[in-house]
Amino acid sequence: MLEIKNLHVKLEEEDKQILKGVDLTVEAGKVHAIMGPNGSGKSTLSYVLSGRDGYVVTEGSAQLDGHDLLEMEAEERAAAGLFLAFQYPVEIPGVGNMTFLRTAVNAQRKARGQEELSAADFLKLVREKAKALQIDADMLKRPVNVGFSGGEKKRNEILQMAMLEPKLCILDETDSGLDVDAMKLVADGVNALRDEGRGFLVITHYQRLLDHIVPDVVHIMVDGRIVKSGGPDLALEVENHGYARIQAEVA
Amino acid sequence: MGLPQQKLDATEERLAAIQVPESGAWLSDARQAALGRVRSMGLPHARDEYWKYTRPQTLVQPEVPHAKVFQAYESAVFDDIERLRMVFVDGVFDPEASDDLTLSGVEIEPLHAAGAADIHWARDLYGVLEARGQSPVERSLAALNTACANAGVLIRVTGKADRPVNLTYLHQTEDADVVIHNVVKVEEGGDLTLLENGPGGARLNKVMEVDVADGGAFHHVRTQGRAHERRAATHVFARLGRESTFKSFTLTVNGALTRNEAVIELTGDDAVAHVAGAALGDGASGDFHHDDTVFITHDAVNCESRQVFKKVLRNGAVGVFQGKILVKDGAQKTDGYQISQSLLLDDDSQFLAKPELEIYADDVACSHGSTSGAIDEEGLFYLRSRGVPREIATDLMVVAFVAEAIDEIEDEAIAADVLSRLQAWLERRRG
Ligand SMILES: Nc1ncnc2c1ncn2[C@@H]1O[C@H](COP(=O)(O)OP(=O)(O)O)[C@@H](O)[C@H]1O
Ligand SMILES: [Mg+2]
């Protein structure tokens, strides 16, 4: 589903290489986790895949279902089925959460040649999904992420994911800043979306999220490369011994 | 001290080209007095300090710059609002297209009809508030208007109007040079909402004088018409009595040149004056130069004034804001607020702001701010990453930006109507 080959990325503004040859394939129905120390390039990978400005791909490729992601605008990637749950969801003053959601859902449907959802159908759907994530009517009415707590922002990301039903979900440190209950809620939201046709790339710094969202494959990223891949046990190894040991191993 | 020769010549040239309409005694007295003011002040000139950011030439010259008639496809603003409608076509009142002028608690008369009388209540206001507004800064285009306007409406409000009055100014000929003068007198306890829409003409010179007596309320909401080539110089002169309310909002999209002046005097204690505006211009579809010039004088105790102006500019569009709060000696407990902001969608557009405070009382709270900024790229990416195309995402943020000004409209139905027209316009522009 997602195929990343030898991806090299540097910053546009300065001559700094961040990703130094990433190879990664996520199959439909699978959950892949990426772990790695701070600054290793995990967020950069998620941004480059979703089409944020400021990065230059110097080598390599990234495809979603055979389509060249790197050639597409951010909104086209979304319509093609890519979704990024941001590490730091952005506040957008003045734009109502509900308006935003409806605009996004309908824009994607339009891009895919589907009919737009009626206001009533949309409302019904959003209420149902919001309820499961314990997002109340007030949060839906407020401007996007403005004045939301850390946990509320993350739940709002999962709500968007649930509404947009992407093919490939990238979750960038969705667990950071969450207490145990909130993490459970978010994990349940993600697990509810697990499906044979859907792939996940779960980026996390800590192992604990992976207790709730059990991965099929775990990758360790260090300094812009995936240095080791393995089963769920690899996450435990990181938890017990830190990244230093793996770094030493592969050095 | 005489006027510079150039200014004198330009003024005489324009005056030679105008016709002062025949009218009854009260109105012809007012017109003659106004002509005198125009002669002594001279019409605006490019070197006038008050016209530093906006070229007055096309507003002053005798020849009308032609403006193509704009065909709008959507239904007009305020169509869904229950209202009493008066239609002016190229500056001429069209009774056929207008509603019956009967409205409980409100007297409405077209200016040309009332002007034929020898005496009229409007004598105390017509040209009077305009003349007061000539100091400390001259606004001679308004005096020119007083001298030669033959269209407009005189409204006296004695009670609470049960629906708004809507003045629609249609533009039908490319060289229509339109002068409109409205007078509104809100008596004690009276309450009226006035809606205005439409470009009016190729060139519009419009004056509205509003006197709000103690405890009266006047709400004003206007949209200036989307004709790309139209030019307009408008003035609102308002005088507020004790515990009175005056709130005015203007939406401007398109227009080659717009100069909107609001001159407001708070003369009774505890009065409230709000002026707001949202202007959106795209230089790609023709020149866009939009100037809000506001002068608010606090001359009583415990009054509140508020100015909220937002401009969205792209492709070489120019926005100007000159806003002043003058707090006179003794106007204690004044609460004055002023914000002017622009959203520049590219590097070609510019926003020129001159906010001013002049305060002669010691117990006042006045604040002002002016900002100019680009669109938030982080926010834009966030919206796009959810599949919202760039143009729609930009417009969502544009609407969010101007919403603060539209929120100044107190009536929710009218505010929603204005917002939906704005959204329809943005949508059509996106194609
Ligand atoms: N826009 C940027 N400007 C400057 N440095 C950046 C930028 N984006 C990423 N970096 C740098 O790239 C490296 C990787 O960052 P990031 O992808 O955020 O790592 P991670 O998510 O693994 O913590 C860090 O050294 C970070 O400082
Ligand atoms: Mg990160």
From TrEMBL, chain A:
This is Fe-S cluster assembly ATP-binding protein. Belongs to the ABC transporter superfamily. Ycf16 family. CDD domains: ABC_FeS_Assembly. Residues 2-248 form the ABC transporter domain. It comes from the Bacteria. SMART domains: AAA. InterPro entries: AAA+_ATPase, ABC_transporter-like_ATP-bd, ABC_transporter-like_CS, FeS-cluster_ATPase_SufC, P-loop_NTPase. One of its GO terms (molecular function) is ATP hydrolysis activity. PANTHER family: ABC TRANSPORTER I FAMILY MEMBER 6, CHLOROPLASTIC. It holds the Pfam family ABC_tran. It comes from Tropicimonas isoalkanivorans. PROSITE patterns: ABC_TRANSPORTER_1, ABC_TRANSPORTER_2. Keywords: ATP-binding, Nucleotide-binding.
Automatic annotation (TrEMBL), chain B:
InterPro entries: Fe-S_cluster_assembly_SufBD, SUF_FeS_clus_asmbl_SufBD_core, SUF_FeS_clus_asmbl_SufBD_sf, SufBD_N. GO terms for biological process: iron-sulfur cluster assembly. Residues 173-401 form the SUF system FeS cluster assembly SufBD core domain. This is Fe-S cluster assembly protein SufD. PANTHER family: PROTEIN ABCI7, CHLOROPLASTIC. Residues 22-159 form the SUF system FeS cluster assembly SufBD N-terminal domain. Pfam families: SUFBD_core, SufBD_N. The lineage of its organism: Bacteria, Pseudomonadati, Pseudomonadota, Alphaproteobacteria, Rhodobacterales. Belongs to the iron-sulfur cluster assembly SufBD family.
